[in-house]
Amino acid sequence: MVQENNEKPILEIKNLSKKISGQTVIDHIHFSIQKGDIYGFLGPNGAGKTTTLRMITRLIFPDSGDIFIDGHSIKNDSVLALSRVGSIIENPAFYLHLTAKQNLNLSAKLAAVNVPKTRINEVLSIVDLKEAMDNKVKTFSLGMKQRLGIANALLCYPSLIILDEPTNGVDPMGLREMKTLIKHLAEKEKITFLISSHMLREMEDLCHKAAFIQGGKIVEEGDISELSGVYQVTNLEDLFFACIKEKLT
Amino acid sequence: MKNIWTLTSFEFKRTLTSKMLLVYTLIFTAMYVLTGILFHVYGADSTVVAGYGQSFPVEMLQSSLTFTAVFIAIYVGEVLIQERNNGTIKFVLLRSVSRFQYYLSRILSILLFSLLLTSIMLFIGYVVGISFFGWGDTFVFYSVVTSGWHGVGVTLLAGLAFGFAYFIFGLIALLLSQFIQRISTLAMLMGISTLVGQYIIIYDQVKQYAIYEHLLFFHINLFEKSFSYSVTSFGVLIAYLLVIGTAGYYLFKKQDLYV
Question: Where are the transmembrane segments (chain B) (predicted)?
């Protein structure tokens, strides 16, 4: 029984499509993510990564298909499905006139689960922002906002965290810290990550599995080391181009 | 319910501490002081007031039509257009907040803002009115001539009616704000609509169904017209609330948010 639960995908995307202004931007995509994965959602700019993530988080609505989070359909029960999901879509948005702590306080009040006050300090410590917690967010650098975004995503004890281009604006030092943090959270806290990016080198030592998206279609999906074997490549960048090239030809 | 309360109280606190509210207060103060000065210089015939401090606040409500309409539209822009443009709408919606809860919290915030703005206008009216004319021995508001606490009661009731009509106007702005990208566009559109709307209400057959009639006269007609006329007017505003509120919610519910 335990084994069956482990095999149940935490995120399942079925036959998802979306047209914007008459143009198909997502074309019947299908993939699933198992618990504990760090899953890369990779593609060039304009491939449909953010659109897909927006559909997962219900900011926009698919024309067809469905999304299941922990078995709950996002169409039928979005609040329950998203109750254990933390996310940063495109860029983290905060009330700039409030402090980091006040923002997280508001976020905690709006959560479906009970978030104790100590959790706010806890997540701020995890992202190393405890000293800046009483500063207004408008004084934060982009990197600090990204870290605060991760703190916000962590707030509700999520089982799935969705990060859209999380390395945007993060300096090399911050980038290394972020990778370490994601690996730590995946291993120790058993949090599943879905990370979209077009920065392949940054994703290489982070993700175990990936879906490659091009022109709104999933061109390849699976275990990165297995796919590397199939395409006879040694790194993620070569794998990406091999998948895209394969599709184009 | 918890989320609606959290979002509404957050918006209300934000409004109370905003610089815009201070600016609105200063504009109303300047307008009221100017009216007081004009009364002293040119007399009652050149102004809309009778020259009694106790009736000055309620007399001044109608003259603020365009200002109040624009301020309400700007506020609506802040609670929806600005949230969308700044991306803070996703800060809320990515938590366990449904679109219904979010939209209802916007409606309640507009109601509170309308009442707050009316309260500020009445307060400034009393301060400026008493400063210029003293309390006075009579309360005069159209055919209502009274004094003392009864006059205060009439003022408060008229204020409530005035605030309610502007709340409905805010709901129309909220619906339109789903198609508009800039606060300034919404404010301009709603401001111009009040100027144009004043011409619609010259037609007796339709005027009771036009929101502009109620922006200008609902708080006056309450004391000037028959009880059944006031009930019908109130019913029209409730119908606006139900139709515009529901239509706005369904639009918002289906809207893709590219934030």
Answer: 21-42, 62-81, 102-135, 155-176, 183-202, 227-252
